[in-house]
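pasting for ref. prot 1 ->
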Amino acid sequence: MFYMAQAVLMTKNVIGSSHKEVIRLFGEHFGKPHVFDAQIAKSLVDAYRKRLAGDYAIGSEIT
């Protein structure tokens, strides 16, 4: 999802280097103007949170 969001941002010549920045820019350029359904931006945030939990949380379970 991260790379897909980066690719969509590139259509507007916008580059984000970190996950947080890509999520913020995606919301700014495609979420708030309702170019994509709001659920897509929410799913991107949710996937990021799950990634953080999977990578860094001890004993967490991702379903």
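and prot 2 ->
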Amino acid sequence: MKISVLGCGRWGSCIAWYLDKIGHDVMSCGLADAPEFIQLEKTHKNDYLEFPMSIEVSSNLKNAVDRAEVIVISISSQHLRSYIAQISEHNLDGKIIILCMKGVEATTGKRLSEVVGEFVDESKTPIAVWVGPGHPQDYVKGIPNCMVIDSNNQEVKEKLVNEFTSELIRFYLGTDLIGSEIGAAAKNVVGIAAGMLDGLGYTSLKGALMARGTREISRLIKALGGNEMSAYGLCHLGDYEATLFSPWSHNRKYGEEFVKSNQFEKLAEGVMTSKALYKLGKEFNVELPIVDAIYSVLFEEEDINTALSKLFVRTVKKEF
């Protein structure tokens, strides 16, 4: 398949590398003035991997869109709206758009597939999402994992799973687009909470965080019209190891550095996602204690110890 991967960051470069590795015709497209693009264009490598010469690196968005059967987008989720507005200026009929990014639009509370759906006709340009655990640092070493592709279009997601599955990544067919997107986005917020626990020396509380986080997000998924059991699959609970424990997790590291009053310069999607989920919790009247705690610390300057105390020292409740 002719595939254009839009976005040259950590995940975008890994996706391009992976899809080329399993035999697809891949172009990696980024912004001409972005440092990560400049590095890839000049050296065909970055801090995570090295591109084979079979991958074309380009900043020409029109060419990237025109050539592709499949367009994979992997950028900051909060920039998706402005980016898809540019992409939709080109003819997208007959192409598949895959969102390989985990977030919820902070200003609207919309899932990313909903944002793209405002700009394309899904009967002509199907939308899919690619979510689940894994880090580029592990994949390039040949360490396998499992991921999920979901879409409202059954034929499209079956085609993508069949085309993309390999010994390195086994793909599963998603059955709940709402749950897949919300679960994948929300695990980054739980990842920030886990990092805060690490930074404060309360790592032992991660067990409680995981148990409660999954149940909390399952309630939100159900309120939004999804299947609450999706929170227990690869999109959320199945991604906890990679997000709450891995040294490669940007969200966990962000939380850890935050409580130590250190700057973390890399993208942590959970920051703005906490704002979006806080909005959804209020709108749909869903109790989200972990989301509320992270939101209050990041956006209302609440003391971290106070927020965590309210989270873990509460009135007596049944476990489920």
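The first strand starts at residue 2 and ends at 6.
Residues 177-200 form the longest helix (24 residues).
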